[in-house]
Every structure is written in C-alpha cells, then in structure tokens.
Amino acid sequence: MKNRVMIIGGVQAGKSTLMNTLLGKESTANKTQALVYDDWIVDTPGEYVENPMYYRNIMATSLEVTHVIYLQDATSARSVFPPQFSLGIPKIQIGVITKIDAPNADVERATALLKNVMTHGPIVKTSSWQKLGIEFIEPLIQLKTHEDIQQFVKDRDSPYLMYCSQ
Ligand SMILES: Nc1nc2c(ncn2[C@@H]2O[C@H](COP(=O)(O)OP(=O)(O)O)[C@@H](O)[C@H]2O)c(=O)[nH]1
Ligand SMILES: [Mg+2]
C-alpha cells in the first residue's frame, strides 16, 4: 500500500486547511461533508469523531491508510476524542496541534490532551497560516516504524516536534 494518512479531529479544528497547506493548494472555505481523497491525504468530516455513530466510518477508512493524524486545535480547551482512542486503530499514529499562531493558543494544554488520545508517537506543533511545523508531516508519513520515527524526531531537534511515550 502507498503511504497515506487519514486526518481526524473535531469540527473547525483546521483539518482541511492543514491538508491544503500540505498539498500546496488554495484553501476552499467549504465545510467538509464527506471524505476527501487527494494524493497521500484523506480528509474527514469533524462529525466522524464528534459523533460515535460515525466511528465505524473511521474504522472503515483507516483500512485504506498507513498513518492516522490525531489533530488537536490549540485554541480548544477540550478533546473530541475518547481517551486512548488510538488503541482502536492499528495504524501509525501522529499527533498534530493546529493554530499555534492564534493569540489564545495553549500548546501545552493541547499536548496534554493529545497524550490522552495517543499511546505514543510524534507530536507536531503547527500553524498552517504561518507555515510552522508543516514541513515535518510529509516525511513522517514516509516512515513506517516507531524506531525510525523516534530517530527522525531526535535528528530534527525542533521546538515544533516532540516524541511522546507513556
Ligand atoms: N489562527 C489559525 N486559524 C486557522 C489555522 N488553520 C485553520 N484555521 C481556521 O480554523 C477554521 C477551521 O478550519 P478548517 O480547516 O475548515 O477546519 P476543519 O473543519 O477541521 O476542516 C477556519 O476559520 C480556518 O481559517 C491556523 O493555522 N491558524
Ligand atoms: Mg474540513
């Protein structure tokens, strides 16, 4: 299977903006109503994680990808994921924090929220608007083992990239 990532996260968390930024496309203001496949990314509607009725859609879509991005909005005080959500999806996990440029962003809070969702893995702190941390995501989707990912994080030695393990 070609390496491909599914982005999941709450409504308005910045998923589609991140996808467009990663693919170098102009943002469209449209709300994501369904799955959007483009090249190596699958964008999902926020409702998929906000409503347990749709969890089976997440599970079904995960079969088509190698990696999953668990996305947390830095301006939000809550997580839309149930605790340890990544345990149910046997794919390589990547945490991404969005909107770190926002005046009300709280990156530490977002990191703590993601640590409740992911068992282990890299966390990338990003701003699509200011293009911060974005460059780490595509190379991470090329890596298939925890060892390689851990080494990648170590080698980059960036404030926008960390490895979490519990
Ligand atoms: N400050 C800031 N706002 C962002 C950023 N990325 C997205 N947004 C805003 O967050 C809102 C939701 O973005 P969208 O990508 O549609 O979220 P989605 O529902 O998760 O797909 C929009 O108003 C975006 O302009 C960012 O990097 N910084
Ligand atoms: Mg969207």
From TrEMBL:
Pfam families: PduV-EutP. GO terms for biological process: biogenic amine metabolic process. The keyword Repeat does not apply. Keywords: Nucleotide-binding. It comes from the Bacteria. InterPro entries: EutP_PduV, P-loop_NTPase. Belongs to the EutP/PduV family. This is 50S ribosome-binding GTPase. The lineage of its organism: Bacteria, Bacillati, Bacillota, Bacilli, Bacillales.
